[in-house]
Specification:
single chain; about 290 residues; Triphosphoribosyl-dephospho-CoA protein; 14 helices; about 70% helix; about 0% strand
Length: about 290
């Protein structure tokens, strides 16, 4: 009989692999590598991070740091910082016997302390995501003086991953999960439903990874293009017909070094939350 931690770890790995199966323009997937990274590296990253992320009783900060460290040991690169930052609180919330996943998540996030922030800051510095710089307040290169929730709230306006902490993962529960349910009804093939979630995030708001690395104009151009592809999928345009266009846009984005990484991270977190609600007795009625 599997333990709850093992079920949570399996849900995390499933979410990471399911996200790779979708042809997400600009991001790494099984159809095409990109940004000097391959799908296999993301598979190995998921395997490496799953154990630390789901270590029963561990703090959120400890989960984040150990998952990033294990990822670097496995692949020597930052492949999953955003995923880890989003999924660590979800994994911790899934351990509890609360009435639903989201209420448990709220308790976890509001209990975060300064040590969680210190550990998360160390993970962020080690991962060194594109566009990481110094901040006037709550700089990750300095010892934390506030809780992880306070630090994330400070960064929420410029970083969509941080915004999830400040809003109790509103984008996941209010946009991602309802979108996944609707897309799953329309598309029998799971990878197309996953693609709809990715395009949904990308079309809804400028991707903060693109904003950090480029500028608002580039991010908005990508957002508008994503909205057009989302409309085509919603209109039930033949998927075989749409795939070449998706892959052409994918190649163009990658040639320009444009990676909508935040939208991909939110997609993994949505899939993870979806699986947690399905497999965990304490999470079946969440939302």
């Amino acid at each position: 009989m599997t333990t709850r931690a093992e079920r949570i770890a399996a849900a995390f790995k499933w979410a990471c692999l399911a996200e790779l199966e979708a042809p997400k323009p600009g991001n790494v997937h099984v159809f095409a590598a990109g940004h000097r990274m391959t799908a296999d590296e993301f598979v190995r990253s998921a395997e490496a991070a799953a154990g630390p992320l789901t270590l029963q009783g561990a703090s959120v900060g400890a989960r984040i740091l150990r998952a990033v460290e294990e990822t670097f040991t496995a692949v020597g690169a930052n492949t999953n910082l955003g995923i880890v930052l989003l999924c660590a609180p979800l994994a911790a919330a899934a351990e509890a016997d609360a009435a639903d996943l989201r209420s448990s998540l709220a308790e976890i996030v509001h209990a975060l302390d300064i040590e969680d922030a210190n550990l998360a800051f160390r993970a962020i510095v080690q991962a060194a995501p594109a566009g990481l710089g110094h901040s006037a307040r709550h700089d990750v290169f300095a010892p934390a003086t506030v809780t992880l929730l306070q630090a994330m709230t400070e960064a929420a306006e410029r970083d969509r991953v941080a915004r999830q902490y400040a809003t109790n993962f509103a984008d996941i529960f209010d946009l991602g999960l309802p979108g996944l349910e609707a897309a799953s009804r329309q598309h029998a093939d799971a990878k197309w439903a996953t693609l709809m979630i990715y395009l949904g995030f990308l079309a809804e708001f400028p991707d903060s990874h693109i904003l950090r690395k480029f500028d608002a104009r580039t991010a908005d151009e990508v957002r508008q293009a994503a909205a057009k592809f989302r409309t085509s999928l919603q209109a039930a345009r033949p998927l075989a017909q749409l795939l070449p266009e998706l892959l052409a846009w994918d190649a163009a984005l990658k040639a320009g070094g444009i990676n909508p990484g935040t939208s991909a991270d939110l997609t993994v977190a949505t899939l993870f939350a979806h699986r947690l609600r399905t497999i965990l007795p304490s999470a079946r009625n969440s939302g």
